[in-house]
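Weekly structure sync, notes
Attendees: PL (lead), two postdocs, one rotation student
Agenda item 3: pending single-chain targets
PL asked that the sequence for the first pending target be pasted directly into the notes so everyone works from the same version. It is reproduced below exactly as submitted, 125 residues in total.
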Amino acid sequence: QVRLVESGGGSVQAGGSLRLSCAASGYTVSDKANCIGWFRQPPGKEREWVAHISPRYGRTEYSASVKGRFTISLDNAQITVYLQMNSLKPEDTAVYYCAARRLGCATSKDAYNDWGQGTQVTVSS
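Predicted structure, written out during the meeting:
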């Protein structure tokens, strides 16, 4: 099990920015995960993949809905994964989760077993 803690959620107006953090506790994420993903669950909808990063190689991928606006990154200590969200839209409103996968990166939520508690992001028009 990988312990992850999200933070940084809040309420912003459309066009604003927010940075989410996903911190591992007592270890580097590369020690226990080959992939860290960000997912979100809008009200009344199922959880969907947003982005992921391979800590070992730094390879990143994004969903079409956020590409060009969001950036996933890992700090130099490989303890915290960030999701920088720019040009936010009301459609981005959701609970955001980070998740860890021991195997290679995947976009399916079912491929991830270790999840953070989630952090609420609300974007008003």
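Discussion points:
- The mean pLDDT is 93.
- The radius of gyration is 13 Å.
Action: rotation student to compare against the earlier draft before next sync.
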